[in-house]
Amino acid sequence: MDLCDIGLIGLGVMGRNLVLNIADHGFSVAGYDLKKENIDRLKHEKNADHAVAAADSILKLSGLLKKPRAIIILVPAGDAVDSVIDELLPVLDEDDLIIDGGNSHFTDTNHRIDIVSKKGIKYLGMGVSGGETGARYGPSMMPGGSKEGFERVRPILESAAAKATDEPCVAYLGQSSVGHYVKMIHNGIEYGIMQLLAESYDLMHRGLGYSARQLAKIFDRWNHEELNSYLVEITADIFTKMDNDTGNLLVDKILDCADQKGTGMWMACDALSLNQQVPIPTINQAVQMRNMSMQKRERKAASETLSGPSIHFDGDKDQWTDQLGRALYAAMIITYGQGMAQLRKANKTYKYNTDLSTVARIWRGGCIIRSGLLENIMDAFNENTDLSNLLLDPDLSRRVADRQSDLRDIIKTAVLWGLPVPGFMACLAYFDAYRCARLPANLIQAQRDYFGAHTYQRIDSEGVFHTAWT
Fold first, then answer.
1. How far apart are CA 262 and CA 181, in angstroms?
2. Which residue range is the domain that position 458 belongs to?
């Protein structure tokens, strides 16, 4: 076959499926992997529909590509990416392009850009979301880095990306590491929404006594209403899956320990380190609750000694479930709002200058957090490019305000039942704090000055003050 349009290193589940996706759209792809079985598997994909080639070394891969070369790396974040780049640099030429499509930390991406640019090689850090199915049939892709490099591969990426209202869910987001930063924000929002869905499940399952089949119907109905989203959709599907070994519903057989790969924690850490730190309590709670879930042995021991209230409900279950759906909708808006607020702050701190409406646009299809709400979020940033928080958008703020009583009632019931809902609580606390013109932080400032002479500011005079409190 002729020289290929693009190369891909890492032929695992994501990589192999992205190769086939690109080939489906008329572009030729060469692939390489450390594992021989993955290379052999790709060789069998070569046919009239798939113009693919497989190389058994990075040197041979480079020889299969048109110049200037473009190579996507899809390997685990961290040392594996650096190892691939170290092997690539000796065989690449000036103006060749490296695209890191993994979940790399954005600071690592900045470092790698510095390294490859010394050889005149272009670099894109590109977040990819959509999982195995997305890679095969259309992911959301978030590239940042070399503008010239993006334009070179733009036809390939736009063809392979998911489509929303006929628009490809990929766009150039800006210089340096912004692509991986946006993916980090995406994953943090994902953490928050998954926690809210888990709490909703717990309230209906342990609180109302709903079976998995009943829950499947509720989540499916929600997905066809204002809560329509990928995560709600797959949650409905999960409650219908049977376990082949026991013949029971699979969800009831899964251990209640949820691990993490670190992207939610990265977002939380960066929110604390940004200039004028950004509050993201829902994402923070989602990370912490995954940590809590891993304390299985301690939780089991505590359950035998620590008691709480008994669960009792004598109201209208259908009415309460509808109220929960409205509370969940408000909480989802607030969660998206926290993520977009951090991205806006990062724009200034890291000089990304990313258009937030573009971010919302490319999240509408293919990615894990795609939802009908993103249309409204995109419209909000199109209407006001300087919008500091989604809660200040007239339409979205009205939607939250109209449902705040539902959010409060759901939390009150959860407290009376003794069921943990830190995600919902964090959303409400964020909403209540954000709408307060005055918070009790004046007392905290007084305390800090009392014990540590840290000074304070006044509401009636400019400057910095200290008081001899004793």
1. 13
2. 440-470
